[in-house]
Amino acid sequence: MQDYSVPSWPPQLRPGAGPRFLQIADALQQAVSDGLLKPGNRLPPQRALAAQLNVDLTTITRGYDEARRRNLLEGRGARGTYVAAPKVELTSALDLSMNTPPPPDGVDFDDLLKQGLAQVLMRADNELLMTYHLGGGSASDRQAGTKWIGPMLGSMHPDQVVVCPGAQAGIAALILVLTEPGDAVLVEPTSYPGLRAAATQFGRRVIPVGTDKHGMLPQALEQACQQHNSKLVYLNPTLQNPTTVTMPEKRRQELAATAKRCNARIIEDDPYWLLAESPPPPIATYAPEHVYYISTLSKCLTPGLRIAFVLVRDRVERERFLVALRSFALMVAPLTAALATQWILDGSANTLMLGVRDEARARHKMARDVLAGRYAGSGDGLHIWVELPTYWRSYQLAQAAERVGLAVAPAEAFATDGESANAIRISLGSIRDRARLRAGLQRLSELLARRPDAYNGAVV
């Protein structure tokens, strides 16, 4: 292969534009994307580039390492570092079905992880990180929980916060505590599948309650409480999964008043509040004694932490909740709990959350551009809800998407009443690379524009 040198490539580093090593990697990626750098081009030696940019050698090394991680560069021993040929994907499958936070641009997650774990291992008793913990989180973990939930609900006592191994565990434990076998749990007709799975597993009935464009209807809730003698309601009021509806403040106040009047309890599952633009106060603000508030780190930071905070104000109910939780999830993994606590208390969690929020908004803009008139999102959060043209059914579209290498979530997955909307949920965070996400959205847009009979499978 011909050996090209590119001495004119080095970027201009800008003060205040983020870590310099990331600026170098980003500039490499942009130059490759723009065609200024081509496969086979040789980059300047690291020491020469460090001198040219007036930075230390470590900065260049980290920049080149990050570019290698993105499959932009390859080393050829003594011959130097070269722009890599495009990586060949052996599969074209693109997952638009899983609600995970997108990797934030300009935030070095690897560095956050290394620094956070280093701080944990330096400050903690390693034996305590590898043994049983039965109290729903240490004092420090619960203090971190109050800091995390603080923007939503203001001040609270750390003893009121329980640390759980994910929101699903918290939901399941609350169902066990607040209902008996055969009881009805009231939900919206299109709702989070994990709630239905937990309730059904425990022998509870899942009853859909009428909604409008603002979410669950207070009058319909009151009627359902009376008709089914139900005392438990599940709501996801901010950027609802999957419909993306955010309840306005007035509706939240009305539902809180209805719960009080019916002596019902509300599980307020609120994973996306911090990602939303100026969301209303949580329902728990208006009925603190009737609402159990859940905030998970899985949607704002990373699912790998498996940490959620559940606000249970009453001491007796909190003890019952812990007993129920321990029946199937003895404890949160102490190491990940310590890492989450470290990140929250030192500000790293907020930095990562803001990065995820900005990246999610950029991806919503992309979806709006690519899907044009079919985009109906709010501009925030991790997903959009796309209503389908009449010639497609949601399960049919999901099958056709799979045949062209896409995974989407059909409305049937979220239905609580046996009937479902004719729509699909598209998750915007599970594909790491923006260019691949755009390609997936374009493929989906082309699919939506064609009728099902255009996608008959080939016979071989």
In short:
This protein is an alpha/beta fold. Helices cover 41% and strands 13% of the residues. It has three domains: 80 residues, Winged helix-like DNA-binding domain superfamily/Winged helix DNA-binding domain (Arc Repressor Mutant, subunit A, Orthogonal Bundle), CATH 1.10.10; 121 residues, Aspartate Aminotransferase, domain 1; 223 residues, Aspartate Aminotransferase, domain 2.
Radius of gyration: 25 Å
Secondary-structure content class:
alpha/beta
Count of domain modules = 3
pLDDT < 50 stretches: none
**Average predicted local confidence, pLDDT:** 91
Helical residue percent band: 40-55%
Q: What gross morphology would you assign? A: globular
End-to-end Cα distance, whole Å, is 39 Å
* CATH H-level superfamily of the largest domain: Type I PLP-dependent aspartate aminotransferase-like (Major domain)
Our count of helices gives: 14
Instruction: Record the strand order, biggest sheet.
Output: 6-14-13-12-11-7-8
Organism: Telluria aromaticivorans
Keywords: Aminotransferase, DNA-binding, Pyridoxal phosphate, Transcription, Transcription regulation, Transferase
Pfam family, one: Aminotran_1_2
GO molecular function, one term: transaminase activity
